[in-house]
Amino acid sequence: MLSQINLALGAGSTTLLLLLKVLLFRDFRAVTAGRLGSAFALGSAAHAVTAVSGFTLPATPWHAALIAVSTGNVAAAGGKGHVAAEN
């Protein structure tokens, strides 16, 4: 039951972050802050995908790309990376 709730909340947050990314890029693509906000929303969506409980090891190439994007995004925000937080 909890894993289903976790999956639903992860999917919902990923969807909202991707929507935010698209809207920021559409409305503010000429502004540097808009492009950076769009990239940050994309990285946060990647982090939400990799943080879900069904995301297991060993990492395939597309898993590794998502982890790299999400780790770089969290590190840019001043927090710990996703991989470091799991160890």
Q: Could you walk me through the main structural features you see in this protein, from its secondary elements to its overall organization?
A:
The chain has one domain (2-86). Residues 80-87 have low confidence and may be disordered. The chain has helices at residues 2-28, 32-50, 61-76, 82-86. By secondary structure, it is mostly helical. The two termini are 26 Å apart.
What are the salient characteristics of this protein?
87 residues, mainly alpha, 0% strand, disordered C terminus
Question: Short description, anyone?
Answer:
This protein is mainly alpha-helical and 87 residues long. Helices cover 77% and strands 0% of the residues.
List the topology elements.
Blueprint: H1 2-28, H2 32-50, H3 61-76, H4 82-86
Helix pairs in contact: 1-2, 2-3
Residue runs with pLDDT of under 50 for 5 or more positions: 80-87
Oligomer: single chain
Whole-Å distance between the termini?
A: 26 Å
Overall shape: flat
SSE order, as H and E?
A: HHHH
Helical amount among residues, as a percent range?
over 70%
Question: Rounded to an integer, what's the Rg over CA atoms?
Answer: 14 Å
